[in-house]
Amino acid sequence: MIQLKTMLNCIDNSGATVVECIANMKMKRHARIGDRIIVVVQKSRTLGETGPSGGAGSVTAAKVRRGDIRHAIVVRTAKKVQRPDGMVVKFDDNACALIGKNGEPIGTRINGKSLAPYWRQRSRSIAAALFFDTMNQRYRVHLLTYFYAGVVGSELRDKKWSKILSLASQHV
């Protein structure tokens, strides 16, 4: 659940890395996966980063700067989410993707930092811990998103954010 002053990771390539929630567009107290929020960019990538070729002409310009106020879509929350089939999903962090006022994503790809070793990055599976809750007789899933950074919640499909789902490498 995302509320006022919550810090989120920005997982697209728009140039922002950390953003802070300043408003929820649904006028409710908490925002969940797929909800639209207004954020202010707290930390951004520098303008002087060079591309993979390393030449002078390959400077990547960030689309957003520190202090910019933008709209965003919540794609991961650290709060447990129970799905209609009974599965409970919990991500490691709160994350969002920046969008324009018209609803189009600012970035062209959903990615993020991967803290895992190189051999873990090469695997195509998502590291997950599956727990069986004996009290409620259902499975609980805890996704370790730092093994596979482009993961977003599949609740975005229900809320008609298919453009963000198409940019992400995996949705769970």
Compile the SSE list and pairings.
Layout: E1 7-10, E2 16-24, E3 36-44, E4 69-76, E5 81-82, E6 88-90, E7 95-99, H1 118-121, E8 128-133, E9 138-143, E10 151-152, H2 155-158, H3 162-167, E11 170-171
Parallel strand pairs: 1-7, 6-9, 10-11
Antiparallel strand pairs: 1-2, 2-3, 3-4, 4-7, 5-6, 8-9
Written account of the structure:
By secondary structure, the chain is mainly beta. 8% of the residues lie in helices and 33% in strands. The protein has 3 helices and 11 strands. It has helices spanning 118-121, 155-158, 162-167, and strands at residues 7-10, 16-24, 36-44, 69-76, 81-82, 88-90, 95-99, 128-133, 138-143, 151-152, 170-171. It has a 5-stranded mixed β-barrel with strand order 1-2-3-4-7. It has a 4-stranded mixed sheet with strand order 5-6-9-8, with no helix packed on it. Strands 10-11 form a two-stranded parallel ribbon. Strand 1 and strand 2 form a beta hairpin. The longest helix has 6 residues, at 162-167. It is globular. 31% of the residues are buried.
